[in-house]
Amino acid sequence: MIVAPDTVLRWQRRRFRAHWTKLSRRPTGGRPPVNAEITALLTRMAAANPRWGAPRIHGELQKLGIEVAERTVSRLLPKRHTPPSQTWRTFLANHVRDLVSLDFFTVPTASLRVFFVLVVLAHQRRRVVHFNVTEHPTAQWTAQQIVEAFPNDTGPSYLLRDRDHVYSHAFRQRVKGMGIREVLTAAHSPDLKLHLAAAFGSSV
Question: Backbone phi, then psi, for 3, in 5-degree steps?
Fold first, then answer.
């Protein structure tokens, strides 16, 4: 048989498409689909018992003589939408009256010395509650500043700070003894220092 080259290429493309169409078809074997009545029963059980998980519902179905895999039960369970966790914005809005921030920033001098300025800032009115300056900040010195900032049980409910090593065990124990809960910022987040420095400069 004598045919044109384009005809041979057309036959080859047709054969190629038919081959891969056959391979990509859904297999006829495998597990049969779950009965619609079982799916509806499973959905009703999950709605009536929101604390039940797939293992418990699977066990209850077995008691009724219904054989279905636990993995299938887990797949068919309605997705439960859990409320989102509290964001930083929500936390600040809810606790702004009881929240203070603590941070250091540095001030170089003309004689090439570096002073560390500790600032305690109340978030409600962006008011500087306390500040002090030292050339050698330590955990004991920093903890004493908290005591001086909030004498006679006037401490806030929450203290927001970063993860600097100066806030060691001695500092944390002193703050805990004052009934103040610490809230830590995310690691590698220098923005807090910039905000405190700006607030300090605008408040003086």
Answer: -130, 165
